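Comment on the following before class.
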Amino acid sequence: MALPRTHEPSVGALLRGWREQRRLTQLDLAERTNVSTRHISFVENGRSRPTSEMILILAEHLDVPLRERNQLLLAGGYAPAYSQHDLASPSMSAVSEAINRVLAGLAPLPAVVVDRRWELVAANDAIDLFTAGVAPHLLEPPVNVLRLSLHPDGMAPRILNLPEWKAHLLDRLARQAAAARDSALDDLHAELSAYSAHGPCSRTEAHPANTLVVPMRYQSPRGALALFTATTVFGTPTDVTVSELAIETFYPADPASAAALTASRP
């Protein structure tokens, strides 16, 4: 007996999905790309087969991640346009060296490099501030940085403002999952949401009206620290791996925290 065929979504259906995800009408996309609404409609309903150039133009204006742009091209019958190399490969030596220089230069500020699903790629020595007291199983590769932060056996018991920090991380993760249309991030969000937001040291704090960022307040081996994060990404990447890397750096939010971190500099 013949097995039923499985049908992969057409390139038109995939493009329509991305357009709807971005909450754009066909007219909105037409105005952004200088392509007629008629042609966009024909592409989406399968009446017209887009060229590889057209797929990339539409994907660019829909802010489709590079990994998914390759999938769009494959669905349209074309070869992928963006390479994907392992960070340890010789062709990525310049990127690896840049990451190592940045991480070393940021010390004594804790900094990590994560991929698109928040798995740890690299870190500087200052990250020991956060891993002290963490259960060993959470530090076994692949280490998920968000799980490490919010798991009851991870950093959570030492995050003094755990309820608001958890809400911040979950909101960020939800927006990332929606933007990337990545079900694995949805699953991670569901897992992290189930963790308790109340640890032995946690409390909800009111912030002054002039607060610019909500810091993570952490009971570290060097005392209580108030830290906020900044994210750095590579500009104009043409490799999938590079496009998905981000450097998360923790900066002191007050003079006491700055002094505590600076005191650790050799």
In short: The first helix runs from residue 11 to 21.
